[in-house]
Each structure stands twice: as structure tokens, then as C-alpha cells.
NNP family nitrate/nitrite transporter-like MFS transporter (Fontibacillus solani), 412 residues
Amino acid sequence: MEKKSFWQSGHKPSLFGAFLYFDISFMIWGMLGPLAVVIAEDFPMSPVQKANLVALPILGGSILRLVLGFLADRIGPKLTAQIGMLSTLIPLLLGWLWVDSLNQLYIVALLLGIAGASFAAALPLAGQWYPKEHQGLAMGIAGAGNSGTVLATLFANRIAQYFGSWEIVFGLAIIPIIIVFIYFSLFAHNSPNRPAKKTLSEYSNVIKQRDAWVFCALYCVTFGGFVGLANYLTIFFNTQYGLSPIMAADITTLCVISGSFFRPVGGFLADRIGGTRMLMILYAGAAIMLASVSFLPPLIVVVALLFIGMMCLGAGNGSVFQLVPQRFGGEIGLVTGIVGAAGGLGGYALPLILGRLYQLTGSYTPGFIILSLIAGGSFILIFVMQMKWRRSWLSKIHTPRTAITPIDSAKA
């Protein structure tokens, strides 16, 4: 039977809906990253307090992804996404109308994790429509919604400066989430090929499998590195290079763009050359770039290094989720939630590493050295695991390219 091309298979309105939901949710999830420098003018904060502020939304998203992953499996990703979007209105209203202290802002920051949990519904909605040979690209396109971070870094501080209030940014963010909710409700649909609902014992069995935890570790570095840096770099550029809040956020935008838009590229290339091979290249690249950043070179150099490093991390996100559906196709909703939660924990830890070490040493060098070593460790992990996977489930994967045989694919 002749296989369909990517655009002939699947359901494009649902894929686009998943992208929009993920995109606008990421914009909301990442707002505090650029705004932290502006908010510090109203609520003076130490380096650790700033790190906590931008890390709390990531922690909230990490926890809630497990919840949304469970719901996506039980009630379907569409309804789960709708619940997620409506729930996101809560922290937006609180941030707009309620906050008047740093402690209250911490509560709002944690609740913004509802938006970050969108990952656990958006990716299953998109991925379940597509066959295995197109999983990498489908998940990459939906996952490219992390480009919403670009919207946050590009516009949040400008809006705050224009209106003379950072609180209004929360209020205005309500408009796009409502627009996306309407489109999503009308045009996105659950795939008819959704896996059957899993029992609690089946959930337990998945969690017990070593490969699930390996994917958690891999995604903890790629996604955690991307979202952690996206949320913290405005603070880094403002503190280390003395840039204004808007300029620091604009430079962060340049770095975030590469990670956002190379996610689908990572998935696409992983479909072609193999997810494990792609990940080894990307982890090596990220480790080299982060190690180079630790020398704190001139601004133009550090921006180039972070651009390439974020590109590697973003493409790595797509590459990890080219492999996940092939290993756990029947439990994709649950595994997406678990792996996504691990990625969130990585993103939560990264600002704390940089912030705490900066407060202790007065330099960002130790923090970036540690991040480089973590990326290097991930290279070793995937190198070891791909040799084991090659003898088991990876050997069963067939790529869609006629120029690559199943045997060649297994070697990937």
C-alpha cells in the first residue's frame, strides 16, 4: 500500500489548532521572563528572587502536565485543551487586578503553569492524527508553538512601557487566548485513531519502564534548557551586559527564535537520519556553545553562541518527540505528560542554577559550565542507549525515504 505524504495524511485544522493553543499558551507562560526586569523596579529583588520568579511558572507547568496528560488520555486532548485555556484566564485576571506584593506575584507565577501544561494536550491532539513515519514533523509543527515565547520577549516589556504598567500585560493577554479558544473549539478535533483509555495499572507499568525515564532525562535537558534560558536570558543580558529591559528582551528574542523555529526542523531531520543520531549531534553542539558562553565574551559573540545553542536545544525537542511516539505509541498521552513534566523540571532548575551561583560568586561562568557538563552528559546517555535500542524497538522503525532501508534506519 502506497504511503501518503505528510500533507495528505492527518488533519490540518487540528494540527494548526494544536500549534495555536501551544503558541499562545507559551506566550503567556513565558511573560514573566522578560517582565521580571521591569517588575524589579516595583518589587526590588535579589538574584535568587528573580530566578525564583521566572522559575515558578515552569515548576507549575511541570506539575500540571501530569494532570493534563492524564486528562488527555481519559477525556481526550481537545476537551483537555479547552479546560486548560479557560483555566489560564485565572492567573491572567489575578496578575492584572489582584497583585500588590511579591508573594502574591509568586502565586500568580505558579498558576501560570496552567499555560505551560498545554504541551500535554496539544502534542497528543496533533500526533494522534499522523502515522509513525510523519510523527517527527507533526509533533515538531505542533511543538513549534513554543515560538510563543518570542511574542512574550518581543512585546511584553514594550507594552508595559507604553502603558506605564506591567499589570496591563496580563489583562491584554486575555484577548488572544479567547480568540484561540474559539478557533480551537470550532475546528480542532480528536483523532478517530485515539488509543484506548488506560487503566491505572497500565499507567504504573509505563512509569516502571526504563525507557520512559531515559526520555525524561533527555527532554529535561533539551526542553528544560530551552525554556529555562528563554525565561532567564533577559535577566542575564540586563545584569551582565547592562542592557535596558526592552533591549535585553529583544536580544533574548533573537536567541529564542532559533530554538522555537528549529523544533520542527529537528523532528523533520530526525525522521530522515534517525532521532538518536540527531540527538547526539545536537547535545554535542549545545555543550560546546554553553561552554563557550561561560567565558562571557563580548555581547555580539555571546548572542551568536546562544543563538546556536538554543537552536540545538530547540531541534532536540523535536528529535526527542520523534522517538517518543514510536516507543510509546499506545500511551502517548500519558508519556507526553510525564516527559513534558521532566522537561519542565529542567527548566525550573536552570534559572535557579544561574541565579544562585551568580549570587554566590558574582559571575555567570560557573553556572554555564555546569549547564555545558549536563549537555555533555546527555550526549553520553543517548550514545549508550541507542546501542541498546538498536537491538530492540529501534530496529522495527521504518523510515519513509526509499533511499534508506529498514536496516539503515535501525542503525540510526
In short: The domain at 10-189 is CATH 1.20.1250.20 (Growth Hormone; Chain: A;).
